[in-house]
Specification:
It is built from 10 helices and 20 strands. By secondary structure, it is an alpha+beta fold. Strand 3 and strand 4 form a beta hairpin.
Amino acid sequence: MSTRISPVTHPKKPLGPRTATAVLVALALGLTLARGHYLQAQDSATELSKSNVAAPVSTKPAASAAQPVTFDIADPKVLAVSSDEYVINPEDVLDVHVYDVPELSHDYIVSPAGNVVVPLLPKPIQAAGLSTDQFAHALEESFRQSGRLSRAQITVSIRQSRRSLVNVDGAVKTPQALPVIARTKLLYVLSQCGGLADDHGITVTVSRGPLARRDLALEGGPATPTLDISLKKLMDPNDPTSLTDVWPGDSVSVERAGIFYVLGQINRPGGYNLRTAHEQITILEALAIAGDVTAVAKNSKALIMRKDSTAPSGRKEIALNLSDILAGRSPDQVLQNNDILYVPASGGKRALRTFVSLPASVATSAAGAATYTRF
């Protein structure tokens, strides 16, 4: 049976029943043919992926000796990665999603050589040195050139990265490997580690990773492997040093110098950091730093409590006569890291006996004492 389509004799006259039926039949036929071609392409992709994929994640090169599809890192288009974008590194785990092709949408591990093996593609694809968007475009182009997927739509994100970390150690309250996806401020990294520890020194050292050196070289700045930064300048919001950045792959180490405590009848009792691990502070210098003794201090009954693993309480007690030290009759001793210089009140013999008999409580008091930063 055939259907005859009559011409429309008047442009404003509505279509007749036969004409409408013919249009609908033609549209249905066209959609059926398009769907058949689509399903055939999908079946072909599925069969190829089943025959080529042993596991969804692969880091081994293909069985053939095909060279990977690479991109010139010196190409301006490749170098046009924003410094705020993450750059893919070897051993990163990438979440690759191919629209409407679930057989290809998996996690892929970047090989140590910086390449990714993807089913249906004859060659590994270079990923290291590219942003996620650039790698997604590279995959789309590779699928198009291979004839496997003519209009692939691909998105790529970072599932896990061993190099998207900044390692922070030394004199911070919580040393850790901090996840950092892009360049960020050094002060923010230190704050995420709980801030500076009480025994910090005056210097923080940043060891630059490959990503930092590359970005700094592109910006025309110094790309030295290590950078020593003054903590005093870093903490000053008016100093340009406070804007120092770190990148994924950098390491940060805060100098650990030491701390001493001056407690008791002191105008400003508390803990004070040593500026460096080699700084030597004498008893008289410590008293001057802490604002000197009060008017009711018993100078002849001062003492130092020093850590000693052989002592029953873990600390040994060294008696001092501050009056003799001030007069030059006794030597001015050098304090050691974690020493506690204690000056009792006049007439406080009972308090001193209690203090000496309970050194653990003194250590607790020192731990809870206010600390003052010396730069």
